Amino acid sequence: MTAVCVVHAVRPGYFHDTAIDKRSVQGPVLITVDGLEGDRQIDASHGGQDAAVYVYAAEDAAHFATELRTELPPGFLGENLRTVGLDVTGAHLGERWRIGDVLLEVRKPRTPCQNLSQRVGRPRFHVDFHRTGRVGAMCRVLEPGYVAQGDGVVIERQPDHGVTIGTYVTGLDADGARQLLASGLTLPRSVRERARRIVSRGRATR
Asked: pLDDT digits over 13-61, tens only?
C-alpha cells in the first residue's frame, strides 16, 4: 500500500461542501467501523459503514493521470487507501482484504458525482470516470485496527460469483446478477436491488 489518506480540508462542492480533498498522512492510522480516524464523511449518500474506507489502485490513478496530463497524488481522487499491485477494478464484490491489523470487505463500487469533476477541473469527468469501471472499491470494516503506508494487502477471501467492481459498473448482465444474488453474500441494499432489477429485465426479454 502506497498511502493512507484522510481529509485535508472541507471545500465547497457542486451542491454542498465536500471532503474529497484528502492527503497522505504518516501512520499508523486507526480504522474503525466508521472509517479512518481524522477523516470525514459529509454526504450520507456517499457514506455509511458500507463505504467506510475507499480504496483506489495506483495503477488506475496512473491511467487517469495520463489522460488528464497531470499528477494525481494519493488522496486526490478522494480515496483513503491507495494500493499498488492489487487489482481493485478486478476485485469481486464480497472480497476480503487484510491490510495491517484491519480486515476489509469490498461492498460496492464508488458512485462518482460532480464533485470529482470539479476536483479535476473537467466538466462531466465523473461520467467518463464511471464508464471505464476504474472507480475503486468502497469497503466495510470487519476488523478494526491500524494501517500504515507500506503495509501489504493479503486477499483472504475471493467469492466465485464472478462479479467484479469493473463488471458491476460496466456490464452486469442477468446471469451475473443471478450469480451475485445466489452467492449467499449479505449485499448492500443498493447492490441487491440493482441485481434484482437486472434479473427481472432479463426474464422479461426471453
From this structure: 888 899 999 999 987 999 999 999 999 987 766 679 999 999 999 999 9
Q: What is the pTM of this model?
A: 0.95
Q: How far apart are CA 137 and CA 121, in angstroms?
A: 23
Q: Are residues 186 and 94 in the same domain?
A: no
Same domain, 134 and 59: yes
Please tell me whether residues 154 and 179 are part of one structural domain.
no
Domain holding 187, by residue range, is 172-206
Is the same domain home to 110 and 183? no
Same-domain status, 80 and 120: yes
User: For the chain, how many residues are written?
Assistant: 206
Cβ atoms of 169 and 135 within 8 Å: the answer is yes
Q: Quickly state the pLDDT bin for 206 (edges 50, 70, 90).
A: very low
Domain match, 8 and 61 both: yes
Distance of CA 107 to the CA centre of its chain: 8
Give the separation between CA 47 and CA 55, rounded to whole angstroms: 14
CA distances from 18 to 7, 10, 13, 105, 122 (A): 10, 6, 5, 25, 17
* Residue 105 shares a structural domain with residue 180: no
Residues 113-135 have pLDDT tens digits of 999 999 999 999 999 999 999 99
Q: What pLDDT, on a 0 to 100 scale, did the predictor assign at position 149?
A: 95
